[in-house]
Amino acid sequence: MRFPIKIIVLLTLLFISCKQTDTKPQNKDLVLFDFEDQTDISNVKTVDANYWINDSNHLQISSGFFASKPSVKLKRPKGKHWDLNGYHQIKADVTNVGDAYMQAEMFVGNDPDELTRWYCSDYVDLNPGETKTITIDLAWTPWVFSPQLNIDGMRGTPGKIKTNIDAIDEIMFCSRYATTKNEFTVDNVRAVGTLEVRDTTGFFPFVDIFGQYKHKGWEGKTESVRDLKIKAEKNLKILSKKPGPKNRGKYGGWTAGPKLKATGFFRTEKHNNKWWMVDPEGYLFWTAGVNCVASTSSSTGITARENYFETLPSNDSEFAKFYGERGRASHGLYSKTERYKYYNFYQANMYKNYGSDWLNTFRDLTHRRFKSWGLNTIGFVSDKGATNQGKTPYVGSVWIRNTPKIEGSDGFWGKFHDVFDPRFKEAVTASMDVQREGAGDPFCIGYFVDNELSWGALGSLAIGVLKSPETQMAKQEFVKDLRAKYGSINKLNNIWETSHGSWGDLLKSTKAPNKEKAWDDLVTFYGKIAETYFRIIKEELNVIAADHNYLGCRFAWANNDVVLTAASKYMDIMSFNKYEYSVENLKLPEGVDKPIMIGEFHFGALDRGNFHVGIKKAKNQSERGAMYKDYIEGALRNPLIVGAHWFQYIDEPLTGRFDGENYNVGLIDICDNPYEELVDKIRETTYPMYEYRTGHNLK
Fold this sequence. Notes:
It contains 16 helices and 27 strands. The longest helix is centred in the C-terminal third of the chain and has 27 residues. Strands 1, 3, 4, 6, 9 and 12 form a six-stranded antiparallel β-sheet that branches. Strands 2-5-11-7-8 form a five-stranded antiparallel β-sheet. Strands 21-17-27-26-25 form a five-stranded parallel β-sheet. By secondary structure, it is α/β, with parallel strands linked by helices. Helix 7 packs parallel to helix 12, helix 8 packs across helix 12 and helix 12 runs parallel beside helix 13. It has three domains: about 170 residues, Galactose-binding lectin (Jelly Rolls); about 300 residues, TIM Barrel (Alpha-Beta Barrel); about 130 residues, no CATH class. Helix 7 links the parallel strand 22 and strand 23.
């Protein structure tokens, strides 16, 4: 067969192009520190840690536990050049040479932006003698644009480097959440991998009519409305074939296990040296749940970003009902504008599939899925229409809003409540009163109140109080306590090494004291803040829902023994949002024996058209499932933990929610299709979870 000359030329060019792509030179590993000589540690800063190069030419670190991050910071050696452009990852090999479990963490660079710094870090769990490699991606995707496009409002931004590569001149290693002294070694700190460089031509728009990434295909991607319906029918058939685990009661308790006292409500009990929940019928219950079971969680801002989207409905379209408007966001692009317009692709896709009754279908389908998947709890901030149906146990979500704040405090989600201001208790009462309608529902496990409060380092809230104006009620309370303790201002000055002329001068001062000199008083008042907060919450919750569990405030990040001990006096269950690889070793302060609930965890990947893996990374959907199983089984082995809730039900929008989060952390995608590899592992984990926890059939 003869080919026209034009086709021969085109085929030849295509072959050459493919060959050039295949033989594209890769970056050689760039060694940043190998500790073969002393120049690697010529410029080091430490916090509560010591270091040396051991006989194996590894950096050995001995860290304490007084500081929030006991660490060793390695600056780039003088005269040494780091050209990190084009590299994909920074890696380091770490070994636990101590005699206790620990977490070793690495930070790349010293970006002043808190979120950027966080995303340029990761850690590994290390048992004694164990060696692992910490890996940090330098870009949001394995490819970068040249030049970079103007894409805003997304934490994971396609084709963008996470930080200023040329400004990276330090690597920090720390003992994460240390409670004891730790010893670990570091070796072979290097830059590896090559970032593919992509042309920017034709990138906009990059979001299709369903809210998916337009420029990539993947297994399970929805291609048309017909495809949307075919997938929905297939998913329903799977649910019919796999209706759920056996031996489950009305509330999801384990009917094949022991039956304890039934009170008609969920409660806790220690049984055979392990904490459990007990369901209203008296059966053992371990809460396997999911947060944000709500279609409203999938809206994305379109204001100032209209060019991102291939098709947006006109204002007179039947899909215009899925537009909305919001006020200023807490973080990101829309924190800079008073109002912005959004669109909800998930709701529009459900409408395309199920018509005007889509919301009821969403609720019914969710209950069926949870039962089929072995999940038994609808988690934090979920659809009340679903929780009120009496089909699946759920948790209540209480937000304490419009409270006076400690002006000198700070935190990711805002300033801390001034719990000594009478208006705080009034706000708590009003917030609890909203829950009156649902109180008494036996399907309600209990109530979370607030979320991820900024407790800060030990004593920090007390410092925030002293930095506040004299009208701050918490400050007046603190000065009153100090006056009762010291009597005269001179006695306080002697201890704090200050020079206040009177108690009034102290009240007017907004300068923070020397932390070490004022330490005892700072810690004491910090504890009083915590004690007052938890006491008021518990008292007011009891007025409305005395039969339900107080599930706490969902502690996040590091939390010290003072606040946890205060909380344990009032909480029925201690809740922690733990984005970790494992919680098997999670403990409470010495002397505290309370059940623990994990309020949030997740794992995400980039293999299905997403730009951000979330807080903990998996390679693909299969590994997401494997990591779910490992996490839950570790939690089941922990005698304190009575449940864990995944964040969240639906993927976050590709182009970001209100604050820019755009994580692949859903059990279902934007088109309502379950990630089957993940869901299969959830079933594999939850179906035998009661037997696993009690030791039956435990391999």
